[in-house]
Every structure is written in C-alpha cells, then in structure tokens.
Design a protein that fits this description.
two-stranded antiparallel ribbon; single chain; 31% helix; 162 residues; globular
Length: 162
C-alpha cells in the first residue's frame, strides 16, 4: 500500500462539488484522511473564491490508475477541459504525492509543484501529513509550511455544511 495525497478544490458550487469528490474518492479508495477546508482567493484570474482541502489515502493503485480515476471524477462534476489553466473549476483534483516517488511523465508529475507553491495546498497537507518527507527536498511538509509566507495567499477556515 502506498500513501497518496490529493488536493481538491472548487469555486463553482464548491460545497456540492467537494462533497461529490469526497464521496467518490471514499467509494473508490476507502477511508480518507481529510484536512480542514479553507477558502482562498482565486489565483491567476478574477473569480469566485475557492474552497480547498487535501485528502490522504492508502492504495495499491498505480499513479496512472489514480490519474484515470481523477479524470472520471472531473467528468462527473462536469468539468470542461480546454479552458485556461487559470479559470473557474467545478472540481479540481490533483495528485500531489505518491509515496516517495518522483515521476515526470506525461500528465503525471509528482511531487506536484503546487505542494510548495500555494498555501491552499501546503497548509492543508501540513495539517494531515506534517512528518511526510517531500521526495525532492528531503524536508518534512511541516518544515516547508513553517517557512511559507502565509500572508502571500491567506487561508480562511470554511465549511461545506454551511
């Protein structure tokens, strides 16, 4: 079994779409470890705020199988491809970490650069995996979060049951 971390986000009907993502991931992979949910401003475009969280799971599925499953979930949430990288999302699920693997092949790039770049990824990840060692840096997620400029992109606690 491999420990996998996924980032989930939405700014189009976010409560509904995040519940869909969590439900379907749980159905496919079993027990999930979920961070709290955070509201953050859209990055790279003017749009509604995003709700984001990180989910951890154990699986025997390959990164390619997880990627295919993520694409199925995007389709379930009616996510449209071909739009700008920075645009509203019904559901955005990213494979952040797959054990200690480093992969840079086609659509699969892990560890995902977003882990160290955005507070809405690193903060929730540090919450549920503080001692996880980043495969490229050799440092813990908690150490990265401790040094992160949290004012660069503030996180506000949110709830999808509001």
């Amino acid at each position: 079994m491999t420990k996998v971390y996924l980032g989930l986000g939405s700014n189009v009907e976010p409560a509904r779409n995040l519940r869909l993502g969590i439900r379907e991931l749980s159905r496919r992979y079993g027990a999930l470890e979920l961070s709290n949910i955070y509201r953050s401003k859209a990055v790279g475009f003017a749009g509604e705020d995003f709700l984001n969280l990180v989910a951890g799971l154990q699986t025997e599925c390959s990164p390619e199988e997880i990627h295919a499953s993520i694409e199925e979930l995007h389709a379930l949430a009616n996510r449209r491809r071909g739009e700008s990288r920075f645009s509203p999302r019904t559901l955005d699920i990213d494979l952040l970490l797959y054990g200690d693997r480093v992969i840079d092949a086609g659509p699969i790039r892990i560890p995902r650069a977003d882990v160290l770049k955005y507070s809405f990824v690193l903060g929730p990840l540090a919450e549920i995996a503080p001692n996880f060692v980043h495969p490229r840096t050799g440092r813990t997620i908690a150490a990265h979060w401790a040094e992160f400029d949290k004012n660069s992109h503030p996180l506000v606690p949110a709830d999808i049951d509001e």
